[in-house]
UniProtKB/TrEMBL annotation, chain A:
GO CC field: plasma membrane
Organism: Salinibacterium amurskyense
Source taxonomy: Bacteria, Bacillati, Actinomycetota, Actinomycetes, Micrococcales
Entry keyword annotation includes Cell membrane: yes
Domain ABC transmembrane type-1: 76-264
Places the protein is found: Cell membrane
Protein name: Peptide/nickel transport system permease protein
GO BP annotation list: transmembrane transport
TrEMBL record, chain B:
Protein name listed in UniProt: Peptide/nickel transport system permease protein
Location of this chain's protein in the cell: Cell membrane
Domain ABC transmembrane type-1: start-end pairs: 113-343
Membrane topology: Multi-pass membrane protein
Membrane spanning stretches: 21-43, 119-140, 152-175, 216-235, 274-302, 322-346
Keyword annotations of the record: Cell membrane, Membrane, Transmembrane, Transmembrane helix, Transport
InterPro entries per record: BPD_transp_1_N, MetI-like, MetI-like_sf
GO cellular component: plasma membrane
PROSITE patterns cross-referenced by the UniProt entry: ABC_TM1
Principal localisation: membrane
Highest rank taxon of the organism: Bacteria
Length: 284, 353
């Protein structure tokens, strides 16, 4: 059984998925190694200010004389790991809560689902902004705020799957054999949840990056001098004429998010060929 | 049921819709209170020091001032009492005083709302038009090259950081090419039209000010374009799926067999059948638009909710941020309620279920 996981079925290899996977892997690689090979210290302010892209400074310098290329590459190490962590955290908490709600039903379900309703009564960026502002501006608080708005979709999806499976005969059979609720959830139900949740999670990495960089753009996330993409773009508002300050960090965000969306969308075709109308797949 | 009196039977035939609407209204009102609890909790219960933030460092170091402030705002009372005060304040339009503008948040926001709604409405119309066109095209040519292209295009639309796109397009179309008008809602030389709706385009038309109308419209173009990219991606994907689902349906085949094709088949049969799921997603798309304005308006110096949120957030003006959260929450709930209403009216299955 284990060996099968190592082989990638031919049907999985689509141009879109491969392009996405290559770009995503490249960015993750950059994220974890950038500090070792960038040409300049991303925090050092010793270059000429507002220098246009050239041979020395590939992407120019910002208003404080820092090398944008170096900041961009090390910036990958700020945003991408945080986004991945955020998605894993929301996935774990969300699926657990969704499974509990779906399996136990009654007032537990009612309570937990009203909680998700409450979160989803706000557009995501707005609620994240409000929470981050209340907690105070810092990258850590921005992650907390993003977590608050992103777990409910996992809970909703898991709940609906569990709800559909709970009364299936094979699940009942397990329970009659004396499986505890958690054993039932783990053995009989979890395998059916993994596929859809993985698809959701891979699409959510992109959303998480957009959300975190958006909060930093609003000044509620990364604080100076952290080389974070969103805050680098917001610095460009003060220097409209120096187009390179904002252009490159945005392209970085665009390519990473696009890569994860390509992967997620291709995964969806594999795991879920029939219903592509899941509300969870498209979020604000 | 056979011997039920006629009057009761008529009532029961109509009641599902009424019942459905009442249930929806009930949930919406409950959620509305939920929204106020969230903003209340965030404004009052989180760590951090709202009192110091409200009074400023200097005044907060004076115990007498702090005590007076606590008394005045009723912060020494139990939380449920504070919440009731908060709610009754809201009903009277009291959302606190902005730390940044020193004006009541409510009056600041009431000036900002029309500007944002004008953008959002136009963006939703544009996104629906383009989304329905692209989505139907992709569904009709399922698996072909154009379908793939639409898929890539819509995925890219969903991946663009809107605040960056705003910056880049403003830079390119205004500063470089000089074909777009500058920031704001109107050129500096023009006076705003007399306020009727608060939408400059509509007000200018009502006043017969043609020049003002075209100028206001030109100023709308770029923000609407930037905001629409994401929602176009969103709508295209859903339209494609919804159209695919009905394309094989018997009634569409019957339409084809009757000899219908082209626009008559598309609008009269296919899109009519696919309209319900599309309607649902329009509500969601509105939420993303409201989110988007927060990140986009500031770049265009568009004096709406988004700029207000941006300025409040960057200057850590908590009452301002909470006000925006509350207003947007209420607007979003109202829109979703309206979508549900339409849904129930259009689709008998929903209200009977």
């Amino acid at each position: 059984m284990r060996k099968r996981w190592l082989k990638i079925p031919a049907a999985w290899i689509t141009p879109l998925g491969v392009i996405g996977a290559v770009i995503a892997v490249a960015w993750v690689g950059i994220a974890f190694t950038a500090r070792l090979w960038v040409p300049f210290d991303p925090l050092a302010q010793d270059l000429p200010r507002l220098q246009a892209p050239g041979i020395d400074t590939l992407m120019g310098t910002d208003a404080l004389g820092r090398d944008i290329f170096s900041r961009l590459m090390t910036g990958a190490g700020v945003t991408i790991p945080l986004a991945l962590m955020l998605v894993v955290m929301s996935l774990l908490v969300g699926t657990l809560i969704g499974a509990i709600a779906g399996y136990f039903g009654k007032w537990v379900d009612e309570l937990l689902m009203r909680l998700t309703d409450l979160v989803m009564a706000f557009p995501t960026v707005i609620l994240a902004m409000v929470v981050a502002a209340a907690l105070g501006p810092s990258l850590f608080n921005a992650v907390i705020a993003a977590f608050v708005v992103s777990w409910p979709q996992y809970a909703r999806m898991t709940r609906s799957i569990v709800l559909g499976l709970r009364t299936q005969n094979y699940v009942m059979a397990g329970r009659l054999m004396g499986f505890s609720p958690f054993k039932t959830l783990r053995v009989d139900i979890a395998p059916n949840v993994v596929g859809p949740i993985l698809v959701l999670a891979s699409l959510d990495v992109g959303t998480a990056i957009l959300l975190l960089s958006g909060l930093s753009f609003l000044g509620l996330g990364a604080q100076p001098p952290t080389p974070e993409w969103g805050s680098m773009i917001s610095a460009a508002i003060q220097n409209f004429d120096s187009w390179w300050i904002g252009l490159f960090p945005g392209l970085a965000i665009l390519t990473v998010v696009m890569a994860f969306n390509f992967v997620g969308d291709s995964l969806r075709d594999i795991f879920d060929p029939t219903s592509q109308v899941s509300r969870a797949g498209a979020r604000s | 049921m056979g011997n039920t009196p006629r009057a009761t039977r008529r009532y029961s035939a109509r009641s599902p819709l009424v019942g459905y609407l009442l249930r929806r209204l009930g949930t919406s009102v409950l959620l509305l209170f939920g929204v106020t609890i969230v903003t209340f909790a965030l404004a009052n219960l989180v760590p951090g020091d709202p009192i110091a933030a409200a009074l400023g460092e200097g005044a907060a170091s004076n115990p007498a001032t702090v005590e007076a402030y606590i008394k005045e705002r009723g912060l020494d009372q139990p939380l449920p009492v504070q919440y009731v005060n908060y709610i009754s304040g809201l009903f009277q339009g009291d959302m606190g005083i902005s730390l940044r503008t020193a004006q009541p948040v409510a009056s600041d926001l009431s000036k900002a709302v029309p500007a944002t709604v004008e953008i959002a409405l136009l963006a939703i119309v544009v996104s629906l038009g383009v989304g329905v066109a692209l989505g139907s095209l992709a569904a009709y040519r399922r698996g072909k090259i154009s379908d793939q292209l639409v898929r890539v295009f819509s995925l890219i639309g969903l991946s663009i950081p809107t605040f960056w796109m705003a910056l880049v397009s403003f830079n390119f179309f205004f500063l470089q090419l000089r074909i777009a008008p500058g920031s704001g809602r109107l050129s500096p030389a023009l006076a705003p039209p007399p306020t009727v709706t608060g939408f400059y385009t509509v007000d200018a038309l009502l006043a017969g000010q043609w020049v003002t109308f075209t100028d206001a419209l030109a100023h709308l173009m770029l923000p609407v374009f930037v905001l629409s990219l994401f929602t176009i991606g969103l709508l295209t994907r859903f339209v494609r799926t919804s159209v695919l689902e009905v394309l094989d349906a018997d009634y569409v085949r019957a339409g084809r067999a009757k000899g219908l094709s082209g626009p008559r088949l598309l609008f009269g049969y296919v899109l009519r059948g696919a309209s319900l799921p599309i309607l649902t997603i329009v509500g969601l798309a509105f939420g993303t638009l409201l989110s988007g304005t927060v990140l986009v308006e500031a770049v265009f110096a568009w004096p709406g909710l988004g700029s207000y949120a941006y300025n409040s957030a960057t200057s850590l003006d908590l009452p301002g941020v909470m006000g925006v959260g509350l207003v947007v929450g209420v607007v979003y709930l109202t829109i979703n309620f309206a979508v549900d209403l339409l849904y129930g009216v259009l689709d008998p299955r929903v209200r009977l279920a």
